[in-house]
Amino acid sequence: MSREEANPESDRYDDAPHPRETLGLFGHAAAEHELLDAYRRNKMAQAWIIGGPEGVGKATLAWRLARFLLAHPEPAAAAVQSAESLAAPADHPAARRIASMALADIFLLRRAWNEKTKKHFTEIRIEDVRKVIQAFHQGSGSGGWRIAIVDCADDLNRASANALLKLIEEPPQRSLFLLVAHQPGRMLPTIRSRCRRLMLGALSPEDTIAAVKSLGAPWSEAPESDLLVAAARAEGSVREALRLLGDDGVAFDAAVRRLFERLPQVDWLGAHMLADKLTGRDNEAAYETFMRATQRYLDARVRELAQTGAAPVRLARYASAWDAIRDAATETEVFNFDKRALVLGIFDRLAKAEAG
């Protein structure tokens, strides 16, 4: 499958290396060994859900497995039986072909680029799945594995999910489906029932820093103090750490936290200044950092109140607020609404959740 050089990739963060180009894996040795052991014993499930928080290395692990299978298509081979990990040398032909997407036997399903809006579609559409189905049945280019990577399954709508389900139910021989999912519980139950689940946890701050440094410049050149703060605030997500390290992200995150700490009182002047900053396409990274900080705040408040024995009705207010915020964010993205109204609405909902 050829890479669309002219269009941004929906599964790549900014200018960081794509997961298919990332050879290192940090913090997930147990999950890697589970996959290696299943392959070595010829017990590889046909479909896997690789789940866990955003940015912890799920796609990197999926591409790492794909690279290993293409390099070693026979599980009984001596190289497989003696392997200690799924690592493949950077100069291996399979690694080079994957990095350049010069493959006839790997199929990547992700949100496509919309030429009209010059943005990615908000969902993986059924026509995208149909293209993969057609290509999937045309045969393996190397006579070995056919591997489909979905990054990420959260972006499937009901129609595209059902179309993918049919392919998973009736695949060609030697097929493997790797479904990256931030929230596996939201996937179709029928898909979940046909997949083996492999859950990845958040990275430690040490592994987060190591993963960031492995990406090379400019990430590896960030001041050590910024790396420490970003790793602590990223909660095990390399993607979030990269956001925080870019364009005064650490200072921006601290400013957002100060606004949240004043709740249920809202600093409306500060909220309006924040809303102005998040408007526009050039501020996508700041917007994503704000939305993640919002989710982090709500999660922390629910955990804190639950530990103090708060009544369920009080906890439910925060869950309701998050559902409303997520729906409003989706509408803003789909209909290209002004983000100012979304940001101000978020502060209003959070204040009401706090005040009851």
UniProtKB/TrEMBL annotation:
Its EC number is 2.7.7.7. One of its GO terms (molecular function) is DNA-directed DNA polymerase activity. It holds the Pfam family DNA_pol3_delta2. InterPro entries: DNA_Rep/Repair_Clamp_Loader, P-loop_NTPase. The keyword Transferase applies. It is an enzyme of class 2 (transferase). Residues 1-21 are annotated as: Disordered. This is DNA polymerase III subunit delta. It comes from Methylocystis hirsuta.
